[in-house]
TrEMBL record:
Region (Disordered): 105-165
Protein name per Swiss-Prot or TrEMBL: SET domain-containing protein
GO biological process: methylation
Alphabetical UniProt keywords: Chromosome, Metal-binding, Methyltransferase, S-adenosyl-L-methionine, Transferase, Zinc
Alphabetical list of PROSITE patterns matching this protein: POST_SET (PS50868), PRE_SET (PS50867), SET (PS50280)
Subunit structure: Component of the NuA4 histone acetyltransferase complex.
GO molecular function, one term: histone methyltransferase activity
Compositional bias per record (Basic and acidic residues), positions renumbered to this chain: 126-145
PANTHER family per the UniProt record, alphabetical: HISTONE-LYSINE N-METHYLTRANSFERASE SET-23 (PTHR46223:SF3), HISTONE-LYSINE N-METHYLTRANSFERASE SUV39H (PTHR46223)
Organism superkingdom: Eukaryota
Major place of residence: nucleus
Record domain Pre-SET: where: 240-354
Keyword Metal-binding found: yes
Amino acid sequence: MPPVSPPSSLRSPPTSGARTTYRLRVSDVSKIVCHRLQNSTEEYLVRWKIAGGSTNTKSTIYSWHCISELSKCLHYVQEYIEKLPKSRPDAAFVAIPAAASRKRKFSSDSQITGSSSSSGNLTPRDWAHVSREPSVISRKDRGEKGTCPVSGVTAEQSNDPAVQEVDARKLPDQFMLKDAAQAPVSAAERAIQATFQAKLRSVKNTEWENHVDNTAPSLNFTFISDFVLGEGVYRSDADAHVGCENPCRPNMGQNLGCEYPRDCACLEYAAVDKDLLKEGDMARYAQYLEDWDTDGFLADSRGLPKRFPYRVSKDRIVPSTLMKFYLEQRYPIYECNLNCDCGKVCKSRVVQKGREVPLVIFKTSNGRGWGVYCKEQLVKGEFIDTYIGEVLTNEETNRREELAGKDKASYLYSLDKFCGDDPNNDLTKDNCYVVDGQHMGGPTRFINHSCEPNCQQYTVSYNKHDLRIYDLAFFAVEDIPPRTELTFDYMDQDEAELEDVMRKREAKAADPAYRDKQRCNCGARKCRWYLWE
Ligand SMILES: C[S@@+](CC[C@H](N)C(=O)[O-])C[C@H]1O[C@@H](n2cnc3c(N)ncnc32)[C@H](O)[C@@H]1O
């Protein structure tokens, strides 16, 4: 094999000891297809991305890499490990220190271009020329002939005699799979855990722990602090929100701010407090009830007494809690906004101030993946956090759902609270926006379902004119002791009688339509057996 001199645009091969400075670029990696233990080092077989397509061809490039070289693409390693048989010899749990510190939606080719970079990133061509044992695929060490699966530029161009050409479509081969069955993945698991821990550092008041196995939550996930709007999704500017006008002023209502006055412009659709109606309100109230029949939550309640949403202690030592009416009726809550005159201390500003309670993302022990608990006691009606993620159009949501397949976990939450309420607006369950927390979100995207949940989601709006985007806020619906898993009902159903649930379960068991549906493992007495119906 004639030696090939690297083109001048490529860096010269590093001398020994320099390899850890090289890291593969995410954009160059297609997937990890195998792993092995080589000289006591875990190595992972990378399939390089093919320019212009993803089909694996005869001459796709592959190379072996140790974990430090893969530090930018650990999510590929994580995906690979997740698919390994759970009965592997090294799959036993080795205690990892706890980290410091309605459908499937919930309702409401071989020519790889690229040159060496100056940043320590390696391109496929670099690898072919660098051609160092053991990172370049080689079977020479095992004395097997013709099995070196580096292809494309490698076999002819590499000056490493260990490098030979094989048909890349047949990788990983049986020898590799045999080696992989025996090789540990612990170095990768440690690196994945450390990377997730580093990601979590940006999230206030949040930890994670795993006393079940050696996994970490997906690295293919970004923590965000507000909705990220997808293509075709629009939201009105905060500056344009209708604020309260007369008679609001800062520090009104016993120095606690807004009292949900009758005439406030921002409270046009707020819930009416029937108990406070006066004689002179009756004609107006009759009109409101008439409007309610057609407009639902968008019935105009201006001029009528309102139901204030939160109970706030004067000293604010006890947390604000949602009033019984809202807890039970699920009426939309209107919080004051940037343009309201009531000031920062207004007591109708709770959800907008964000989470205050400490959450822990933990691995469940009964196959429900990750869950969430709060380290502290939560009281009934206490705000926990909002559900955030990418806000998508229905078309994009459908596309993602089809791609995911029915067995995949769902992180979709429909913003459908106001569907059908506005006769001038054709907002329906088929065209409302959907929040997808799969790739971006906050800790609440790890909250699991229960048929007897201890939390519920409530609609919180700052802008009465925006029926499409509002906050999905979770509140405790009972007192929740510290370290108790937080759950909500993905189907958002009202509590049913046990006999009724049991009767329906029998019917579902006999119904072939339920055969493919995702089973619920919440363990509640009134479990409905399926996550989505
Ligand atoms: C929003 S995610 C919750 C977080 C998820 N456990 C994780 O590890 O990322 C929803 C997914 O969690 C799983 N899940 C949640 N609650 C469950 C339950 N009660 N029984 C079985 N699986 C559940 C299902 O895979 C579901 O699609």
